Amino acid sequence: MGEVRLFPGLLAPPAGLGFLEDLPSEEGLHLVAFGEGALAALQAAFREGAKSLVLLSPLLRRDALLAAKLSALRFALECGGVEGFARVGRALFFGPRSAGSEEIFAAWKEGLSPEGVAVWLSQVEALGDERRWLRGTEARVLVVQGALDAFTPPLYGQEAVDFAKGEALRFTVEGAGHLVPWEAPEEVLDLVRDFLSGEAFRPLPGGLAW
Q: Which of 9, 85, 113, 157 has the fewest CB atoms within 10 Å, i.e. the most exposed one?
């Protein structure tokens, strides 16, 4: 049984990635990160020689398009507080399977605070090209994204797979967006469980898996 360590990031709902705790895994260190938590997880993988790394909607670089989205979110926060940020975020972070769900939206918004959102914005605005950290670990990598993620489109996940030094797989969840762990928790749980145990994954051309 290995150790599973979670990096939920600052935009996670209050429950975070708790549903992925205590999963059976191979011996060694296994890291699971969401969003901007990917950078801290990669740095830990580099320092501690992780066995595997799961990146959920990874944020590892800031380009002009992402900068424009961040500018809109910062403006929304400054003008409308957390409510303004959440309204703009609803269009960027949620996929069509959950964008209309008031229950899911309320659960996510409950975990937001002005201070936490401001820190999150500053962290993501300060990103350079952090994909280089993927070259510092031979851990096997699984990238999971929502197929309709408007904030970090699937290209971002493909880039992470391309930069990985060890075995790397990418999986997209249909109908989900940036908050895929909470929009599709059962699918994400199944994918992560199989990956940590080393079972049920086979690489295909282009970094896809089935």
A: 113
The Cα 187–Cα 42 span in angstroms is 23
Measured between alpha carbons, how far is 54 from 130 in angstroms, rounded to an integer?
16
CA proximity to 210, closest of 117, 156, 142, 112: 142
pTM assigned to the model: 0.92
pLDDT digits (tens, 9 = 90+) for 125-169: 999 999 999 998 999 999 999 999 999 999 999 999 999 988 899
118 burial via Cβ count (<10 Å: 0-12, 13-18, 19+)? middle
Q: Which residues lie below 8 Å from residue 93, measured CB to CB, with a gap of 6+? A: 11, 108, 150, 151, 177, 178, 179
Q: Tokens 């762990």, residue? A: 181
Burial of 47 (0-12, 13-18, 19+ CB in 10 A): exposed
CA-wise closest residue to 66 among 40, 105, 36, 41: 36
Rounded CA gap, 100 and 58, in Å? 24
Residue 184 phi, psi (nearest 5) = -135, 60
